[in-house]
Amino acid sequence: MSVPPAAPLLLASVSPQRRAILTQLGIPFDVLAPRYEEAAVPGSDPGTTVCRHARGKARSVAAVAGQRPVLGVDTVVALEGRIYGKPGDAGEAEAMLEALAGRAHDVVSGLCLLTPAWEEIRYEVTRVLFRGLTPRDLASYVASGEWEGRAGAYAIQGRGAALVERVEGDYLNVVGLPAALLVGLLAERFAGLYGFG
Predict the structure, then answer these.
(1) pTM here?
(2) How many domains are contained in the chain?
(3) Dist CA 22 CA 195 (whole Å)
(4) Whose CA is closest to 29, among 15, 46, 47?
(5) Is 74 noted as a catalytic residue in this protein?
(6) For 26-84, what is each residue's pLDDT tens digit?
């Protein structure tokens, strides 16, 4: 028995990492840049923050999605209650990496999957341990420019892999999309349609 093709998800993100992960998973999708401005809420915990931003991104494009599912995602790095987003410049990137050096931190991603009939919002946490970093390590990585546009100032799928000693949890969550969480939601909400469940 053949399964009818699934309608492509509408990804409310311009992240090349998220596009690559969806492609890797074989999930059909189209991309639309979200019309949502992220604003920090003082005292907000990482899970609440990423869920709010993921929902805001998804809702910002929902009007043009029709009946298709919309996917919004947001990711931050958290260390001892402090949230690290994307650094504004090289100095800020170096300060973030120095703070993370030799310590474990959480990569927290919020995911919002919505249709006109329902909305699912969840988040995933992956624990990442950085090795100790020398001033030379920091200078070399910052000079690479790979930190630009990256929560926590590193890209684990690139040269940033050399900064990491251990990952506990969903590796793809650190790359930018909590893949296991998404697959579980698709299996639950669209059993068999996207190849899961």
Answers:
(1) 0.93
(2) 1
(3) 13
(4) 15
(5) yes
(6) 999 999 999 998 887 788 899 999 999 999 999 999 999 999 999 999 999 999 989 99
